[in-house]
Amino acid sequence: MTSGLAVHGLSKNFGGLQVARNLTLSLPNGARTALIGPNGAGKTTFANLLTGVLKPTSGTILLNGKSVGKMSESERVRAGIAKTFQITNLFRDLTVRENIRLPILERERRTNKVFCHSDGIPELECEIFQLLEDLALTPLADKPVRGLAYGQQRLVELALTLALKPKVLILDEPAAGVPSTESHLIVQAIKRLPADLSVLIIEHDMQLVFEVANRIIVLVNGAILLDGTPQEVISNREVRELYLGADHG
After folding, report:
1. Of the CATH numbers 3.40.50.300, 3.40.309.10, 3.30.70.1150, 2.60.40.10, which one belongs to the domain with range 5-58+69-202+234-248?
2. Which of 89, 167, 209, 245 could be disulfide-bonded to 34 (CB atoms 3.0-4.6 Å)?
3. What is the DSSP code string of the chain?
4. What is the pLDDT tens value at each position of the chain, 249 positions in all?
């Protein structure tokens, strides 16, 4: 059985407009893959096909060898495909700890115990503690989310997504809106993700991409132009001129 995520011949048409063209790629366990390309290249469409927001016109999506094509968004999350970032979706009046508790309770189908403490479900609080530690959020654990810096809120959202215990994590523009003084928090968090987790990073910040990705897929007009190592991407003249700019030349 194939481990990780595998996409074969994935296409999406809106009437006569084709926005995804015969996409074939794999995200093995532990992958750190970036998806780049200009605005309108089809990056968000691809993410939406993976998560079930959109249904493909043709092609297959396999998770550990099993098709997820007929699954709904929520079913895909439970199967192990989770997407985060781009737009934060947090309960701003709750603390960091309370925010992280919610997806764990949902995962365990214990939503009637939202405000219980460690004496109620000690294993749950242990898991929250570990997520706080892993993302360097422990000093902020009991602070309301609304008082956090934007980069810190992004880390909380990442913690919420990791609480779902995904097998495949899609980071949609993790650096979007994060001040340059806080972008290192995102880079460090990505580097600390579980080694066996497959990660797809959709990002315009090429400095971040080159820091965390060991493979880069270049998308243009809904099709894959190049799938290779960072060095292969840097060395490709067309990619360098069209997508990376002179700074990377």
Report:
1. 3.40.50.300
2. 209
3. ---SEEEEEEEEEETTEEEEEEEEEEE-TT-EEEEE--TTSSHHHHHHHHHTSS--SEEEEEETTEE-TT--HHHHHHHTEEEE-SS----TTSBHHHHHHHHHHHHTT-GGGTT--TTT-HHHHHHHHHHHHHTT-GGGTTSBGGGS-HHHHHHHHHHHHHTT--SEEEEESTTTT--TTTHHHHHHHHHTS-TT-EEEEE-S-HHHHHHH-SEEEEEETTEEEEEE-HHHHHH-HHHIIIII-GGG-
4. 568 999 999 999 999 999 999 999 999 999 999 999 988 899 999 999 999 999 999 999 999 999 999 999 999 999 999 998 656 679 999 999 999 999 998 888 776 555 555 445 788 889 999 999 999 999 999 999 999 999 999 999 999 999 999 999 999 999 888 898 888 999 999 999 999 999 999 998 889 999 999 999 999 999 999 999 999 998 999 888 876 554 443
